[in-house]
Structures are given as structure tokens and as C-alpha cells.
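This follows on from our talk about sequence and fold. Can you supply me with one protein entry, sequence and fold together? Could you add the entry underneath, on a fresh line?
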Amino acid sequence: MIGVVTYASVAILLGWVTYALAGLFLPASVALIAACLNGFISVFLLRDTMAFHGFVAVLGPMSLVLPLLALRHMAAAAGVPVNPFGSVELLVFLLVYIAFLAASMGVIPVDMYRFGYAPVPVAIMVLMLCAYGWLTGSLFIPLLAVLGQALWVLGWGSSNWFDHVLHALLVPVVFVVLFLRLF
């Protein structure tokens, strides 16, 4: 079942790249159709190639956040109402996540990453994220937290909950989004 989640994640990410490139010169609806077709056809045709396995290795561990962000972006372009993340919200996330990564690497002497292995801290974090989503009116963060917990409980992928809901690529993505909002 882990393979199915990985294939779906890669299909979504490849589709999103197609959507972003096709959206430069095609209408959003046509780019979205091309994205769906390219994502799933590419995974079907390329799943046993070195390039596919390299893509999965670069993105490993495959978390939910990147595919869900890609789906969120494409849904917003298709006209689905999406609650945008605020600049302050993104800046706070960026600073906290960089500190979390530094702590996980031993730079800061507090290891928060270990809490991702234990059921009670994970349940508390998921409930806090659901409460945050309820307070801000955001469905994305609670959805990510709960789906990550479900995959973690089922043992599909990493044995650490943080690996399901976070990814190191979020740092440059959030940085670029914040930078582009300056202009």
C-alpha cells in the first residue's frame, strides 16, 4: 500500500509541474486536464525507470504536505475557494520549522523530532492543529494533520509522524512565497 501512496504522490507532483508550465500559455482548465493526464500517465509508464526512482529518492521520505499543497494550488486555480496562508503565518512557520530542523540535527539541544514516534504527543499535536484550523477557518492544516496521523498509525511509510506532515522542501517554498509577496 505504501507504493500506491508513493505513486499517487508522484503523479500529483508531476501533474502540478505540468500544470505550472502549461499554465504559462494555456487556459487554467486545459492546463489542469493536461496535468492530470501527464501525472498519471507518466507514473504508469515511468514507474520502473531510474528517473522515477531517483525522483522518489530525492523527495524521500514522501510526505503528504507536498502533494496536498500541489492539489490545493490546482484547486484554487480551478475556482475552488481556498483560504490563503497569511504572510505572518508563513513567517512564523518558517522560523519554527527551521528551528525544528536545527534541533533534529542536534544544533539546538532540544529534540522535538522524537515526539513524532509517540502516540500521545502525536495525538496532542494533531488536536492542536485541528483547533488551529478551526480558529483560522482553514481546512488544509487539520486535513494534513489527520491524514498524516492515519498513515502513521497504519504504518504506511515512516515511523515518525513528522515525516508524514513536513518536508525539508517547505523551507525554500515558503521563503520564495514570502519573497514574492514583497513585490
In short: The radius of gyration is 17 Å. Residues 51 and 57 are 10 Å apart (CA to CA).
